[in-house]
UniProtKB/TrEMBL annotation, chain A:
Pfam families registered for this protein in UniProt: ABC_tran
Domain of life: Bacteria
SUPFAM superfamilies: P-loop containing nucleoside triphosphate hydrolases
Name of the protein: Fe-S cluster assembly ATPase SufC
Record flagged with keyword ATP-binding: yes
Record-annotated membrane-spanning stretches: none
Family according to the record: Belongs to the ABC transporter superfamily. Ycf16 family.
MF (Gene Ontology): ATP binding; ATP hydrolysis activity
Annotated ranges, domain ABC transporter: 4-249
Record keywords, A-Z: ATP-binding, Nucleotide-binding
UniProtKB/TrEMBL annotation, chain B:
SUPFAM superfamilies: Stabilizer of iron transporter SufD
Listed NCBIfam families: sufD
Pfam family, one: SUFBD_core
Gene: sufD
Biased composition, class Polar residues, residue ranges: 1-14
Single GO BP term: iron-sulfur cluster assembly
InterPro entries linked: Fe-S_cluster_assembly_SufBD, SUF_FeS_clus_asmbl_SufBD_core, SUF_FeS_clus_asmbl_SufBD_sf, SUF_FeS_clus_asmbl_SufD
Chain positions covered by the region annotation Disordered: 1-60
Full protein name: Fe-S cluster assembly protein SufD
Organism, scientific name: Arthrobacter terrae
Recorded family membership: Belongs to the iron-sulfur cluster assembly SufBD family.
């Protein structure tokens, strides 16, 4: 059993106009096996939380802490966080020229596990996972994300999630830009990744529709860099009916 | 995504026999040697060989060629073919007598392949090439002897132990001239490696004559010590149904400028040109390719890839392909890709395609320069891959496409090691 604990996290970015605060004191605890949905309007800081956990250099942590089983995550390099068991499925996966999917997956798996995967079982695992996510076999020979459609990029993220078996998965708007079929395929992949019920999931989304497939245990509503309300799955239903209007300042509603 | 913004892509392709919007007179796509340029005017045409009346001033076909250095005006840096070259770093190759000691020649070869040192009046010299710039002509005028490597007719030298390696070791920094002639006789099959090492200031002419039905691979490696200036005009003549694979590898030196030019002597010729370069801080690596399709039914493929790292690392790739009116059935494609690994490096990439007939199989070109940026690094690191491994993964993958074309395992291994060394040096 592992715990990812975020305490009073303040995060800013440097802009041309100076320092801009984005997260304003976020606290959140996720245990193994739990699925937390973070919902909220655009610009509320949801993706900043995801990128900060993964260690993106753009985001400056001004105060607060992130720990994984008591270990200081903020003191770890980006690659060390991944090896410690954190996985970020990115909203906008980047193209990596010259590196094939096969080569990339094997290199990453070797880095995460600290040893090369057994060739025969690995090849089969990759093939099976690709088939289940309806990724064409020829993608294995293509360069990472190069020429992939939006949906293909998202499926490639979930392929990694299934193969790398992290302790905690952070899914940053994995559902955005997917049609209903693709959303179902991707959701099934996330559910498979948590088959034994030991993976903690932080599901960041603007919409409620992915929550029809992946049932959250907790729902947190993000507004202006902080958690404005939290509750169980019923909160998501209410958001679907009412939208985010009641959380927004009166000026924005006008 | 920042990479997409930084990537400039130009491409054009056609696979139809008759290109729409183009008559049999063809179309001028190139802006090389505009009328105003020193090489584009009447003076150029009055000296040019093989360029008769009706060649437009802007065409690559109009470029001055001559064995006499005096025919070429002094280089100012404003000329199309010199505009990227830092002339000071030519260290006199365009100006002074090239009377320094030429690189020494050492050869490892199978018994059947012969090597000779011949005088400049040998009948073979000049049979495959003619200088098309002042530095090349200066070397032509200055050399007293040339090294001739001959692959006998019908020779089967495909296996690795039959590779001919000519090691050319720089003999110091006095400006020098050098001449190499590689002769593949009819229906032979061989691999010749020109391995440039040491320290030199040298203008070199390489002639490559591939007789009818022969298959030849020539790999020219520039693995010079720092401070070297090397200009090399590599001119190839490809016979009927012959096939030449030409590989340029630029790894070391201060200024390295390689100009490979391919011409066809009969139909059915096939040229594959590959290039790999890895420019570090302050290095200038320039490669100017010319494929002259003047014979029907020949094929050319040009694929150059380069990585750059460090302040003022500079690469230049110019690919001129000319399909003349008589070259019906031509099939050509050229491509250049650059990967910029750090701030402060610069890659210039200029593909030029001139088509004078619409009756071709296909013609296309592509050029793209991308950056290994923080987002890519973050992506790979977020998958547990440490920064140095991530960088190696990307560069190795990018350049391996060229390395694997060489098909000489020992050489491929050496180049992979060289890429690793470059990456390690860049990390310091």
């Amino acid at each position: 059993m592992s715990t990812l604990e975020i305490k009073d996290l303040h995060v800013s970015i440097d802009t041309e106009q100076g320092k801009k605060p984005i997260l304003k004191g976020v606290s959140l605890t996720i245990n193994s096996g739990e699925t937390h949905a973070i919902m909220g309007p655009n610009g509320s800081g949801k993706s900043t939380l995801a990128s900060t956990i993964a260690g993106h250099p753009r985001y400056v942590v001004d105060s607060g802490s992130i720990t994984l089983d008591g270990e200081d995550v903020l003191a770890m390099s980006v690659d060390k966080r991944a090896r410690a068991g954190l996985f970020l499925a990115m909203q906008y996966p980047v193209e990596i020229p010259g590196v094939t999917v096969t080569n990339f997956l094997r290199t990453a798996k070797t880095a995460i596990d600290g040893e090369a995967p057994k060739l025969r079982t690995w090849t089969k695992d990759v093939k099976d996972a690709m088939a289940q996510l309806r990724i064409e076999p020829e993608f294995a020979a293509r360069n990472v994300n190069e020429g992939f459609s939006g949906g293909e990029k998202k499926r490639h993220e979930i392929l990694q999630l299934e193969l790398f078996k992290p302790k905690f998965a952070i899914l940053d708007e994995t559902d955005s830009g997917l049609d209903v079929d693709a959303l179902k395929v991707v959701s099934e992949g996330v559910i498979r990744a948590n088959e034994d019920g030991t993976m903690g999931t932080l599901l960041i989304t603007h919409y409620t529709r992915i929550l029809r497939y992946i049932k959250p245990d907790f729902v947190h509503v993000f507004v202006d860099g902080n958690i404005a309300e939290q509750g169980g799955p019923e909160l998501a239903d209410r958001l679907e009916a009412e939208g985010y209007d009641r959380f927004l300042p009166a000026t924005a509603q006008a | 995504m920042t990479n997409a913004e930084l990537t400039k892509e130009t491409s054009a392709a056609s696979n139809v026999r008759r290109i729409s919007g183009m008559d049999e007179e063809g179309e001028q796509l190139s802006e090389i040697n505009p009328v105003a340029s020193p090489l584009g005017g009447a003076a150029a045409k009055s000296h040019s060989h093989g360029a008769g009346a009706g060649i437009p001033d802007s065409s690559r076909a109009g470029r001055l060629t001559s064995y006499q250095v005096a025919d070429f005006p002094a280089i100012t840096g404003r000329e199309e073919d010199w505009r990227f070259t830092p002339l000071k770093r030519l260290r006199g190759l365009d100006k002074v007598a090239l009377d320094g000691a030429a690189p020494t020649v050492a050869v490892h070869k199978p018994d059947a392949v012969t090597i000779e040192t011949v005088g400049r009046d040998d009948a073979r010299i000049g049979s495959a090439g003619i200088p098309d710039d002042r530095v090349s002509a200066a070397a032509w005028g200055a050399v007293n002897e040339a090294t001739v490597i001959t692959v006998p007719a019908e020779f089967d030298g495909r296996s690795e132990e039959h590779v001919t390696t000519v090691t050319l070791t720089g003999a110091g920094n006095a400006p020098a001239a050098s001449h190499i002639f590689v002769h593949a006789k009819a229906n032979s099959d061989a691999v010749v490696v020109l391995d440039h090492r040491g320290s030199a200031v040298v203008s070199e002419n390489v002639e490559i004559l591939v007789e009818d039905g022969a298959r030849l691979t020539v790999v020219s490696i520039q693995d010079w010590a720092d401070g070297t200036t090397h200009a090399s005009s590599q001119q190839m003549k490809i016979g009927r149904d012959a096939k030449l694979k030409h590989v340029v590898v630029n790894l070391g030196g201060d200024l390295v400028r390689i100009n490979p030019s391919a011409r066809f002597a009969g139909p059915g010729g096939d040229i594959e040109m590959y290039g790999l370069y890895f420019a570090d801080a302050g290095q200038h690596f320039e490669q100017r390719i010319f494929v002259d399709h003047s014979v029907p039914n020949c094929k050319s493929r040009v694929t150059y890839k380069g990585a750059l790292q460090g302040k003022d690392a500079h690469s230049v790739w110019v690919g001129d392909v000319l399909i003349r009116k008589e070259a019906e059935g031509t099939d050509t494609y050229e491509m250049n890709r650059n990967l910029i690994l750090t701030q402060g490096a610069r890659a210039d990439s200029v593909p030029n395609l001139e088509i004078e007939t619409g009756l071709i199989e296909g013609a296309g070109h592509a050029s793209a320069t991308g950056r290994f940026d923080d987002e890519q690094l973050f992506y790979l690191q977020a998958r547990g891959i440490p920064e140095d491994v991530a960088r190696r993964l990307v560069v190795r993958g990018f350049l391996n496409e060229i390395i694997q074309q060489i098909k000489v395992p020992a050489l491929e291994e050496r180049l992979r090691d060289a890429v690793e060394r470059e990456l390690k040096a860049g990390a310091l």
